[in-house]
Design brief:
alpha+beta; 5 helices; 7-stranded antiparallel beta sheet; binds flavin-adenine dinucleotide
Amino acid sequence: MSEFAPTERTQVKRLPKRGKYDAETVYKILDEAFVCHVGFVVDGQPFVIPTNFGRVGDTVYLHGSAASRMLRTLSEGIPVCVTVTLVDGLVLARSAFHHSVNYRSVVILGTAKLVEDPAEKMEALRLFTEHIMKGRWDEIRWPNEQELKGTTVLALPLEEVSAKVRVGGPIDDEEDYSLPVWAGVLPLSQTKGTPLPDTRLKEGTAVPQYITNYSR
Ligand SMILES: Cc1cc2nc3c(=O)[nH]c(=O)nc-3n(C[C@H](O)[C@H](O)[C@H](O)COP(=O)(O)OP(=O)(O)OC[C@H]3O[C@@H](n4cnc5c(N)ncnc54)[C@H](O)[C@@H]3O)c2cc1C
């Protein structure tokens, strides 16, 4: 798919030129992120729960304990809204009103499906893990039958999707440009720190390259 068709529900209304529907933009945002917020309604009460995700092709995978209320509820096929946000900077204007944030975000609407087939579930967990840390899956012990049973995996197809992107500096009112106030952008980014070895690390176990070279 190269373009998601905007629907009445995914049409960006405020500053519509910031709305993006091309798959490349959507996938790039989803691939840089690994935390989303999952919105769903139970008995008239909306919940928005933060969780990890992985994307492969036109599918977003969610996972967690089989006891999770979120996953149990979503596996019944109720409507879900998944939001992903990347913050790129604080946009500091001369007026309070024109302050803003540079961001890239995606909103996905749909219904998730339970991944039941054990082989498919294992593959989804591999894809989920590799989305968050490429290279990890081949090194770790894979889930055994019991662990697989205790884990719920949901697949959410990317069908009704929008992205919204803000870039650039502040846009002030003409008369405010003469104010002696610093204006511009304070870029913000997530950076990795130095790996902290576990206290029970087997002696001589080196930090793998995929960790030292980690970037998103
Ligand atoms: C960055 C991040 C990544 C995560 N990744 C995963 C994941 O991949 N899989 C997974 O299952 N869980 C993940 N979690 C935890 C997730 O947010 C839920 O806490 C978890 O799914 C437990 O769900 P539950 O069904 O027990 O909670 P629920 O029964 O849905 O929650 C009951 C109540 O607990 C409170 N609550 C639940 N979670 C949170 C929270 N995170 N923060 C504050 N209050 C909360 C809310 O008030 C909620 O209404 C992640 C959390 C974070 C912040």
